[in-house]
Each structure stands twice: as structure tokens, then as C-alpha cells.
Amino acid sequence: MADLSINLAGIKSPNPFWLASAPPTNSGYQVQRAFEAGWGGAVWKTLGDPILNVSSRFAAINFNGQRVAGFNNIELITDRPLDVNLKEIYETKKRFPNHAIIASLMVEPKQEKWHEIVKRVEDVGVDGLELNFGCPHGMAERGMGSASGQVPSLVEKQTYWVKEAAKTPVIVKLTPNITDITVTAEAAVNGGADAISMINTINSLMGVDLDTWNTIPHVAGKGAHGGYCGPAVKPIALNMVAECARNPRISVPISGIGGISNWQDAVEFILMGAAGVQVCTAAMHHGFRIVEDMIEGLDHYLDSKNISAVSELIGKSVPRYSDWGNLDLHYNITAQINTDVCINCNKCHIACEDTSHQCIDMIKGDNGRSYLKVREEDCVGCNLCAIVCPVEGAITMVEQTSMQPMTWNERQAALNSSK
Amino acid sequence: MSEHEQYLAEKEKIDQLLSEGYNIYHAVENLDGAFVEFFHLKSGTKKTLHIRTANARKYFSSIFIQQKSS
Ligand SMILES: Cc1cc2nc3c(=O)[nH]c(=O)nc-3n(C[C@H](O)[C@H](O)[C@H](O)COP(=O)(O)O)c2cc1C
């Protein structure tokens, strides 16, 4: 078995799978059951002045038969007093000394408030702290969560205050509700963060009921924006992790969060620079035991690649992620249709004819049967036909020989030098 | 004429000038495409091609880069 243990900025856990701060980590009962199921760490439901929640709180988007493709919530941080949570953290840590417990924290942007909560939380033996600068609803209206996390100077200052008091590693959890997450990530690093985590949830309104005209969800006929997460946000989160990982000024480890539902998603985040991952929606949808498949899948994957430790995977794909201007303009792929597998549904033809480059023809064969064929010289390799094709393997994108590589940046440098 | 055929026609014009000994020395790009200026060193003649297709705009710039590096 490969070594699945991780050390994220000094926080050690037996595997890279942590539960994110959310309902699954609301209490000692839940976190202990999660550790029994195999989770390597848990970021406790955000601690702070206990709040009041509304009902209802969640909504989900089901897309073409997939339930919970996206998930939305208007829940706030913990509604339980700090001393209750601390007692349960202490007991959980005592029972599971080798598992990571990270306390997620959110208080008003005041130095003394941060010092007070850091001290009280560290006294019960947490392995690290995660600063919640990301919750986009409710708390943000009170100047906390994403309202703090969207202002780089506030991120830096509050991180600095926490670091003044903290003895354990400090992870800063960033909001995706910002144009360029590397700016706030850098602010966290400048404030002394030992690690960053991303993403928290994305501002969202899940829908409107066509009969009642109420928002979904609604609270007695009124709605407010919530935070979006689950499989639908994975590409957004993965890009944000990758952008931070490839930024030389963001030199701290990253805990990847956002739409991670299985071991494959986790590996993608790790390849793109995450030192570990956190999961919320998938656990809420399927329960704690999904971690069994995650552990087994990751282990088999590492064995199949002859890799002895998951830590060796971290960031392996980061050098392959760059700016558009560094991509080879001459790289050329074209679609090929395998007529043995193709069911002649014509979806590729319609997609190409109506919305792409009109290069797939329906041809009548000698035997009178029609088949689809790509005019390769007109194909721009956009992938649309392969994307809409319902049959696995019916369309493959094939590399063509091309000229010497030339990027946009190289091209413009050459043209500009002739001015 | 298909986009590919337009490209081939533009490429042929570029190749023709190159085979006659012209070199690309300058290109101006604007909303209408690229105006590529060729120069014949021996005769001192200049010629301009209006290149519209994306593939031909890639093609002439690769030639230009090659010429600059050789
Ligand atoms: C119902 C719910 C409550 C959440 N509460 C918190 C919270 O208290 N603190 C926090 O930092 N993030 C909170 N989150 C955000 C998650 O920790 C996580 O960042 C987000 O859901 C993205 O991960 P996912 O796609 O795996 O769900 C919450 C998410 C959900 C769905």
C-alpha cells in the first residue's frame, strides 16, 4: 500500500481526505464517526459567536438525472456555544490523536476578538486553524466571511493578528467571490499564513418557483443569495487552486476544496498543487463511507503508477498550466468518426453545422447506407462533436503533423520587433 | 470557396513570393486581417499581401520567425 499520509504546513493526517467545515463536522459525534469511517482530518464547523439560522437552508440542482449536480445553502456558522464545541473537540482529539482536527474560525475583524478565540481553541489541542474569510451569505452582511475575504488588506491584517497569537499552523480559507483569487491568496501569505484553502461557496440563487414565484429555497416567501458548491463548482475551484499553485509569490501549501466527489477529483486537485483536499457536498449527498472508495481508489492509482507516496503527486501538473499566450498556435487535432461504433444519430453533424465549422458531412455510401465523415482540412479541432456524441469511442480527436511550435507571445514578439 | 481553400490560395501567394527571393520584413495587423510586407533585397522591390485567413496568418508569422532566426 502506498503512503497516503500528508503533512500540510505541519498538520499531519493519515490520508489527504478531510471533511470541510460544514454540517458534517458540526459535532463531536459526527467527526468521530467520520474518523471511524476513514477520513484523515476534519475542519470543524466554523466557530465564532453562536448564530441563529433560518429554515429552510439548502437547495440542489438536479441535471439530466444526476441528483445534486450543484448544491446551495444559506446556513451560517455554528449555532452552538464555543465551550460546547471545545469540549467535543477535546474529546475527539483524545480518541483520535493521529487524525487532524482543524478549527475553523470567524469573528469580527478586531485584533482582540481573534486573539481570544485563537487562545481558547488552541487550549483544547487542535492541530491547526482555518480562518473562514469565505462564507458569502449572512455573515458577510455583518462584515465577516467573504466581506473580509474580498478585501486584501483585511485578509492580510486579520491573518497577521491570528499569527500573533497562534501556536499551530494557520490556513486561510479564501472566497471565490472575487475576480482574481491570487490577490487575496498573496495577502494571506503576506499576513503570515502557513497555508491557504479554497474554495468556499459561490454566490448563488438556485431558482425561482414558476407557480408561487418564490425563490428556491425561500424562508416564509423571502429569499436571499446563498453559497453554491458541489460537482458543478469543481472546474472553478480547480482553476483557482492551479492559479495559486503556479504563482511564485504564493509559496505556501494549498488545501483544495470544491466539488470533490471521488478519488479521481482528489487526484486532479493534488496534481494541480493541492497538498490535501476537503470534501463537503459529496459527504452530505452520500454519507461518510464514500471515503472508503476514495482511499482505495487513490491507493490503487498510486500503485498503478508505481508511486510510493501521495506527496509525490503534489503539483505534478502545475508546469503544464500556463497563460493562453504560451500555447502552441500550430498544434492541430482533428475529429475522426469511427463508423463501426457510430449510431448515425447526427448530433455531431448538427452541432458542427449549426454552431461550429461545418465540417461533418452525411455521405451516402455505395451500399446506399449513409455515414458521417469529417472533412479534416476544415476541422479546427474544437472538440464539440466529441463532446455532444452520445457513444463512447465513436469520435476521437487525432493529432495531425504541424509546423514548428509557435506561441502567440512568440509571434507578437517577432512582429513587434519589426515595427 | 471554403476557408481551407482560401488558406491554400493565400499560402500559395506567400510561397510564390518566397520562392522569388522575397523576405517578410514587416506586417501590420488590423480589423481586416494582416498586411504583410515583403522585400526583395537584390532588386529593392517591395510587395504587400493582404492575408485574411487565420491559418495563413499563422503561416506567415512562422515563416517570419524562421527568417529572423536564420
Ligand atoms: C451547508 C453548508 C454549510 C457550510 N458551512 C461552512 C462553514 O461553516 N464554514 C466554512 O468555512 N465553509 C462552510 N461551507 C463551505 C464548505 O466548507 C466548502 O468550502 C464548500 O461547500 C465547497 O466544497 P464542496 O463542493 O465539497 O461542498 C458550507 C457548505 C455547505 C454546503
Which SSEs are present, and which pair or pack?
The complex is a heterodimer of chains A (419) and B (70).
Chain A: E1 6-8, E2 11-13, E3 17-19, H1 28-37, E4 41-47, E5 58-63, E6 66-73, H2 82-95, E7 100-105, H3 111-122, E8 128-132, H4 146-149, H5 152-165, E9 170-173, H6 181-190, E10 195-198, E11 202-204, E12 207-208, E13 215-216, E14 226-229, H7 234-245, E15 254-257, H8 263-271, E16 274-279, H9 281-286, H10 290-304, E17 333-337, H11 347-355, E18 360-364, E19 370-374, H12 384-388, E20 395-399, H13 408-417
Parallel strand pairs in A: 3-4, 3-16, 4-7, 7-8, 8-9, 9-10, 10-15, 15-16
Antiparallel strand pairs in A: 1-2, 5-6, 6-14, 11-14, 12-13, 17-20, 18-19
Chain B: H1 3-19, E1 22-30, E2 33-40, E3 46-51, H2 54-69
Antiparallel strand pairs in B: 1-2, 2-3
Flavin mononucleotide binds at residues 20-23, 45-46, 71, 73, 75, 77, 104, 132, 134-135, 173, 200-201, 229-230, 233, 257-260, 279-282 of chain A.
Structure description:
Chain A is of the alpha/beta class. Chain A has 2 domains: 315 residues, Aldolase class I (TIM Barrel), CATH 3.20.20; 94 residues, Alpha-Beta Plaits, CATH 3.30.70.20. Chain A contains 13 helices and 20 strands. In chain A, the strands form 6 sheets. Chain A has an 8-stranded parallel beta barrel, surrounded by 8 helices. A 4-stranded antiparallel β-sheet of chain A has the order 5-6-14-11, with no helix packed on it. Chain A is globular and about 80 Å long. The model of chain A has no long low-confidence stretch (mean pLDDT 96). Chain B is α+β, with helices and mostly antiparallel strands. Chain B has one domain. Helix content of chain B is 47%, strand content 33%. Chain B contains 2 helices and 3 strands. In chain B, strands 1-2-3 form a 3-stranded antiparallel β-sheet, with helices on one face. In chain B, a hairpin with a 5-residue loop joins β2 and β3. In chain B, α1 runs parallel beside α2. The model of chain B has no long low-confidence stretch (mean pLDDT 96). The complex binds flavin mononucleotide (FMN). The site of flavin mononucleotide has 28 residues of chain A, from β4, β6 and α9.
